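Anyone have tokens for GNAT family N-acetyltransferase? Sequence:
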Amino acid sequence: MVEPATAIDVQLDGQRVTIRPISSIDANLEVGFIDRLSPMTKHYRFLGGMHHISEQLLKEFCDVDFDQTAAFIAITEIDGEEREIGVVRYAPGSTDNDREMAITIADNWQNKGLDVLLAKQLIDFAKTRGVKKLYSIDLADNAPMRQLANDLGMSVGRDPDDAHQVIYTLNL
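Reply: yep, here.
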């Protein structure tokens, strides 16, 4: 296992937010995070509906090797409880040098810059691992992802396999 970057603390919307690598002990944080997402945010993240995460998918999301896969979560304290408010990850892509990325921000933390902070953490880490390209497959009507892709300088193209999806690409 490759040792990922250490945690960073930032002030966002008047609260301390910690961005750090995910680990297997974060399973409960991840379940709570996904369960609290609105139906629309779940729809965009999972390219369709999902009510509750399966045990298998939860294991995949939290058991990250930081070699072929990587994931960083944003956490903060809400009502005296540590909560996950965002996650960014990548998984192996179609070649050795590219990775498919995904990002999800809690509904009440959207439009505050957390998406850019998380994406930059993943991008910086990907560069240290020799990744040459990150791409994201998203629903074409996902305006928050379209804005993030624009903010990051990603190019956009139609998904040749599905007219309802687009592919955002960032060469590193």
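The longest strand covers residues 81-92.
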